[in-house]
Amino acid sequence: MTSRLETRPRADRARDLGLAESALAELERSGFVVVPDFFCVTEVDAAREELVRVLDLDAGMRRAKGCAAADWREGPTPSSSSTGVMHTVLFPSLHCPTLAAMMDRLLESPMGRHFLRGAVGEHYRLRVDLGRITTGAHDVGPGGALPHDWHRDTPGEWTIGIFLDDLEEDGHSATAGLPGTHVLPFNPYWDFMLSRPCYRSKAAYLDTQYRYMLDWFYRHNLFQGRVRRFFETRARGMFGRRGDWYFFFNDVWHGRQPNLFGRKLVMVRLGGFATEYPFKDDIPVPEFPASVPRSYADHYRAGQPVNVGTDSLLQRMAARQRAWHLDVFRLASAEKRWASRLSRMLLARWPRLSEDRFLATPKAP
After folding, report:
1. For the segment 284-323, what is each residue's pLDDT rounded down to a tens digit?
2. Cis ω on the peptide bond leading into residue 365 (within 30° of 0)?
């Protein structure tokens, strides 16, 4: 039986631009979107085989060197990370020509160019591409929470994910998002009391003293429960099949769903920044070999032109974040700030309040 992806019809510019406009409309509403049927399943399977070969090589080199650390810089790629639940390599494009060609085509095709121009502007700079496989280990956060809790990332940042396996339901480590939260001016990790233990603020997270809220405030409040129910009722996984890809603004509140059923799934990501935003230059970019399309490698180059006067969704999103209006999120954020100050004062006066009977057991820094 022929797969739905094996016989992609000849590219039609009007159809591709229509698909891009439809995806942009959903992106503006939700902050993330899944684009179906973009890649042929034959090349997806070839790219998966290439990536798994690199991951296996990295794992074998780790074993041979006796490396038990999570982070590792002596493997086939510039860097990798291996935890009990996820194995990730950075820049698999160096060793996976099919995958590199797929990522280049996504960015340079008429549909991809039109979509990215509308989403982030004419100019952008890539920061990293990565490939990962879940280990199949049971992966769930404390009390059934997400193992990678709700958060947002650096302003101006965006992410593309390419499905190399079918991921169509909850319980398989999919990225989940909360539709519409990309226009809110809050970070769920710092501005609300959503999970335990709860950091007082971002500054307190980086500090070594009085880092956590008193648990009493988690249990006694007016608005936090309403925000938690918002999460429970609106969260949506970014699901897709082989050959689909998804895009999200890193401002959208997102996290990683639990892995409950032991599947080992392979995923590819690449991400970057619109050029009018400060670039997070924390990952050294390697020299790309000739097997990587030059147009793809050029997107990593520093000195990209700065977007000026564009009407991208990213700029519209930032304008909506700056608009002030009273809602439950603003009330809950103000409540969290007051509770944080009171926690700081009480802990400074009575350090014994930080004992476990008053405060949930802290996470390791």
Report:
1. 999 999 999 999 999 999 999 999 977 999 999 999 999 9
2. no
Buried b (16+ CB within 10 A) or exposed e, 207-226: eeebbbbbbebbeebebbee
15 Ramachandran zone, left/alpha/beta (phi>0; psi -120 to 50): alpha
Closest alpha carbon to 355 in 216, 169, 175, 180: 216
Q: What is the pLDDT of residues 38-94, one digit of tens each?
A: 999 999 999 999 999 999 999 999 999 999 899 999 999 999 999 989 999 999 999
| pLDDT tens for each residue of 209-243 | 557 788 888 889 999 999 988 887 888 999 999 99
For residue 309, the 8-state DSSP code is S
Which residues are 163's β-sheet partners?
Answer: 267
Pairing of strands 266-274, 157-163: antiparallel
Question: Rounded to whole angstroms, how far apart are CA atoms 217 and 2?
Answer: 58
Q: Are 212 and 359 in contact (CB under 8 A)?
A: yes
Rounded to 5°, the CA angle 215-218-221 comes to 135
Whole-prediction pTM = 0.89
| Per-residue confidence band for 356, with pLDDT thresholds at 50, 70 and 90 | very low
- CA–CA distances in Å: residue 88 to residues 4, 75, 174, 245: 29, 12, 15, 18
Measuring CA to CA, how many Å separate 160 from each of 33, 175, 230, 249? 10, 11, 25, 9
Strand partners for 89: 80, 131
The whole-angstrom separation of Cα 32 and Cα 251 is 10
Residue 33: helix, strand or coil by DSSP?
strand
- Look up residue 81 and give its two tokens: 């990370």
